[in-house]
Amino acid sequence: MKLNYVDSDLSGPFPILSYSNSLCYITLIDDATRVAWVRFIKQKSETVKIIKDFVAGMELQHHKTPKAFRTDNGREYVTKDLNRFYTSNGIIHQFSPPGSPESNGVAEHLNCMIEESLRAMLECALTYDEKLWAEAVLTPEYIKNVNIIWQ
Asked: 39, 41, 89, 110 — which has fewest CB within 10 A?
């Protein structure tokens, strides 16, 4: 079922501040459809706010609350505030075992694909501007989602 399970991972910090003043990005993927959302943040501590906003947006737009979030054991995902939020909304938080990124495969695969595309785009750009990394991150996410929608 759509939006029952959401896979998430965080990437960064990047060495250069983007034009939107971000250093990291978080991916959120619907496990059923593989539709992905990318959100940019300045620091990893903003992860809790992003997840809360994402859940509120899904409730407002699709009338669905995710049943579970699958993440790694990163400190940005293991907080008292986020745990309280999950508990109060009936959301189960599933962790992958420490040191095994393959257990969080959906999110890790997306981040790997995004970062490979990012490197290729920035290396091939005629006017190479490192601050464009955030815009380059959005390109593979957009192409992936368009391919899913039109299948």
From this structure: 89
Q: Take residue 106 and report the two structure tokens written for it.
A: 């959906």
Domain limits for position 49: 5-149
Q: Identify whether the C-beta of residue 22 lies closer than 8 Å to the C-beta of residue 41.
A: yes
CATH number at residue 142: 3.30.420.10
Burial class (CB in 10 A: 0-12, 13-18, 19+), 35: middle
Specify the number of domains making up the chain: 1
Residue-wise pLDDT for 103-121, tens only, equals 677 888 888 889 888 888 8
Rounded CA gap, 94 and 117, in Å?
A: 28
3-state helix, strand, coil in the chain (%, to 5): 50, 20, 35
Report the distance separating Cα 76 and Cα 83, nearest Å.
11
* Number of neighbours of residue 100 by Cβ within 10 angstroms: 12
